[in-house]
């Protein structure tokens, strides 16, 4: 059986895969189990075939004077026997599980991923629960895949249940999980729960990124929570993240709307200094020099951190005098 499956894998022969499924069925009837490697190949190939069903592939037409490429529906995956290849994959998984075996973790992840891609999240959760019960190493990754899929469909209750289960079992959600949940809740206007997830994220020492802050800032902006939006943007800059133009403009507009002009100026200084430091860290010396010069001409003070960074990178290149001359000239003016 293993040799037959390897041949099917190498040559993508649907007929051979059908034969492998038939052999597996007979083995299951008489209580003979396949090896784990054969089981991995069978489920893996079925998942791969499912991913190709309905896809479009490029086909090169060569039997003309001028060869050309066309897009055609994927053929070779639409056999009536295996149409809907994910169902046989689930059937094989359940059959081996009922016999006390499970495929390798990477195959379980592949199966869960394909189920989520097809929108079959209930089946994905069932398999995830089996993997959790058997304490497979892929449980954390499985949770991440399923939660992201549920967030895309805004199924809040199921997301909340699985997220709580992750924390209860001591699993550490990845940044992408937190971002998916926070973004979903913000889009649904559930700012209080989004903030709570953000607090859990901080408690678990998972550092936020641009996506995290953007979602929370825009959600607070819609509520006119200028203070919270300002604090989040300041915190974001503190971590070295440069906000998107629309995110910055939203907070600036809120501050002006509430007559917080001093905070507007303070925010601008922070942003410009962070931009300068980013140019320095990226080794863009000419751009960093022009940026510093422009800031000083506009009366925007360089922070001590930005000054130190600017001087350090120019010193390493043997051009420290150039920067000192710029800073000294501006100070005299």
TrEMBL record:
Cite the Pfam families for this sequence: PPR, PPR_2, PPR_3
| Record carries keyword Protein transport | no
> Where does each PPR repeat begin and end?
139-173, 174-208, 209-243
Q: Which InterPro entries match?
A: PPR_rpt, TPR-like_helical_dom_sf
State the PROSITE patterns in the record. Answer: PPR
Q: Which UniProt keywords apply?
A: Repeat
**Protein name (database record):** Pentatricopeptide repeat-containing protein
């Amino acid at each position: 059986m293993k040799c037959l499956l390897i041949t099917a894998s190498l040559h993508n022969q649907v007929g051979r895969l059908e034969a492998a499924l038939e052999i597996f069925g007979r083995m299951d009837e008489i209580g003979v189990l396949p090896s784990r490697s054969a089981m991995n190949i069978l489920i893996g190939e079925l998942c791969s075939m499912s991913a190709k069903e309905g896809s479009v592939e490029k086909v090169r037409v060569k039997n003309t004077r001028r060869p050309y490429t066309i897009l055609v529906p994927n053929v070779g995956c639409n056999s009536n026997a295996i149409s809907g290849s994910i169902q046989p994959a689930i059937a094989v998984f359940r059959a081996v599980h009922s016999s006390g075996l499970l495929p390798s973790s990477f195959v379980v992840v592949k199966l869960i991923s394909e189920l989520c891609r097809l929108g079959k999240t209930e089946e994905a959760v069932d398999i995830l629960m089996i993997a959790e019960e058997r304490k497979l190493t892929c449980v954390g990754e499985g949770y991440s895949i399923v939660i992201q899929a549920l967030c895309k469909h805004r199924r809040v209750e199921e997301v909340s249940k699985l997220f709580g289960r992750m924390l209860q079992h001591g699993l550490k959600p990845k940044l992408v999980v937190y971002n998916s949940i926070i973004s979903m809740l913000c889009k649904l206007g559930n700012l209080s729960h989004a903030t709570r997830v953000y607090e859990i994220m901080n408690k678990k020492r998972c550092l936020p990124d641009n996506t995290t802050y953007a979602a929370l800032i825009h959600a607070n902006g819609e509520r006119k929570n200028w203070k919270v939006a300002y604090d989040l943007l300041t915190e974001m800059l503190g971590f070295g993240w440069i906000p998107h133009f629309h995110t910055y403009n939203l907070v600036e507009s809120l501050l002006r709307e509430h007559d917080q002009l001093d905070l507007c100026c303070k925010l601008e200084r922070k942003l410009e200094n962070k931009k300068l430091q980013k140019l320095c860290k990226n080794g863009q010396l000419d751009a960093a020099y022009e940026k510093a010069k422009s800031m000083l001409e506009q009366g925007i003070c360089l922070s001590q951190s930005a000054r130190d960074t600017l001087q350090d990178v120019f010193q390493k290149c043997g051009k420290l005098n150039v920067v000192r001359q710029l800073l000294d000239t501006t100070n005299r003016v």
